[in-house]
Amino acid sequence: MAGNSAHVMEAGELRKLGPTASRFGRRREVALVRAAQSGSGEAMGELFRRHWKPAHRAAYLVVHDAAAAEDIAQEAFISAIRSLDQFDRRRPFGPWLHRIVVNRAIDWTRARSARREVSGEAAGTFDRASVDPDLVAQADSGRVIATLAALTPEHRAVVVMRYVLDYTPGEIAELLEMPRGTVNSRVRRGLDILAGIVERES
Amino acid sequence: MSRRRGDERHARETLSQVEAPDEHRAEERARQVVVSAFEERQPERVSARGIGARVALALLAVAAIAGFVLTPAGAEVGDWIADRVESGEDDAQRRVSALPTSGAVLVESSDGVWILREDGSKRRLGNFDEATWSPNGLFVAVTRGSELRAVDPTGGFRWSIEAANSIYGLDWSTDEGFRVAFAANGGVHVVTGDGVSSNREASARAGGPVWRPESDPDAALHFLTYVDQQNRVVTLATDSDRVVWRTAPLREPVASLEWSASGERLLVSGPESSRVLSSDGELLTQIPLSGIYGPRPAISPDGRSVAVIDLGPKNTSLELIGVDDRSRKRLYATHRDRSAEARFTGLGSPVFSPDGEWILVPWPAADQWLFVNAESRRVTAVADITRQFDSDGKLSEDFPEVAGWCC
């Protein structure tokens, strides 16, 4: 035996769990969900470790607010825990969680935009000036965030699902319950916006 | 490359650089909240999968395959697969004709557990979740839900026990082979090698248990290493229930433990770094890892080097790091011009051959295995891995996982 190893994390490829978690096997995922349904804290902890980062990052890329992203991802996990007994183990855990996260992120951003609308700002768009300048300055990613701010939250959600969580347009259409043509056009718009970063760099 | 594909690659690269402020502390805060919420939940008792459920799963899989073929969404999946499998080694063999050195490889695929022998012959042991070799490769311990079963290499039944909860983290003791350790329901359990009795040894969290290999099997020390609830690495003498040594709580959660076959070094890996400890639990070196929760590193049988997968911005590579001198030797790197895909779907967790001369590196995106010589860097690639460990042609998205390369 080539050393004794405890295979707590897996290397199997699974796109539906997103880029970070995609190295984990689905069978192990099913076993973890089953164990969590039976009350295993370790299994829940492992599910958290596997899915927290992509969920949190996706939320942040949609809402552009660190505190809100943390709350959204956290609440999504708690919502998932509350519904754990009803969860169909044949389905992967990641898309279930991502759907909750992305929809909550869109709702949060819409609500924030609606509040601004009262004060005369455009609804449906993120105000660049409202991005916390300290946070943006601290993060290497500030320019990307500022660029994405030109998109509506719905557009950002599609871009994040396509290029961060790595879903196909068909899957995004299903998860966000929108026409596939809409998904494609939003992806295209997102690509154009992000391509602008390169043009400014060169 | 088309403009569209170039834009997509750029989008992935750009977005992968974004980090939410205070990510690590946010994760820890959320973890505490989520754990509390979970502890307050009243769990529903779930039975192990029955025959009916398995039939339903099979029907679902058939329907899913049909859907992949017939629907537009299926076409997307096909596109995705085509995108990924275009990378990899061009001159890969079409099947495993032979292992490059002695031993046999235990493989967990979506189709069950398989044994791949030195001459390239394969045998499917059955539909199980996890598997581990017995010390001399005479038996395999497998799990299916809450059942732990010992089978011989032909799949013949030897014994089984049923636990109250799902079993994971199997390890078969390396001395006289009379004990199997596993984790279930928040504890480390040990079952005697004849399946007669099972005792709860300690509470534990993810990361273990693993038996410390002993140079003198007759000593029958039965030292078991695991991670306790305080995220401390503990080595326990299971016969006397005495703690041999215990680390201080580690800052980052332990994700995997691996003893070198020599029993002299312990590799403790977390999401951001690996530590190598001596057999007495002393820290010998710490190795930063690239990428959070990237592929799991592996320690060589003699404990002198650690194989890590480096997730660079342009590609992924297999590196061999000296434990004693921190030397770094690049053994293999994926093609640089496939950077974005490589970062997301690059090399998987390496596994050393029993003699330490070769390293098996899964490459799920290319549907290949790479056998990399740790000395000469010679590479033998084998393609079509998913199909080779798939008895019914359903071709799951799961890439077969290497559960061990035995003696």
Describe the structure.
The complex is a heterodimer of chains A (202) and B (407). Chain A is mostly helical. In chain A, 65% of the residues lie in helices and 1% in strands. Chain A contains nine helices and one strand, in the order βααααααααα. The model of chain A is unreliable at 1-24 and 115-140 (pLDDT under 50). With 407 residues, chain B is an alpha+beta fold. Helices cover 19% and strands 35% of the residues of chain B. Chain B contains six helices and 28 strands. Chain B has helices spanning 3-16, 23-40, 51-70, 72-85, 339-345, 385-388; strands at residues 104-109, 112-116, 122-126, 130-133, 140-144, 147-151, 157-162, 168-172, 179-184, 187-192, 198-203, 210-211, 223-227, 233-237, 242-246, 256-259, 265-269, 273-278, 283-288, 298-299, 305-311, 316-322, 328-333, 351-352, 358-363, 368-373, 379-382, 401-406. Residues 44-86 and 337-344 of chain B have low confidence and may be disordered. At the A-B interface, strand 1, helix 1, helix 2, helix 3 and helix 7 of A face helix 1, helix 2, helix 3, helix 4 and strand 8 of B.
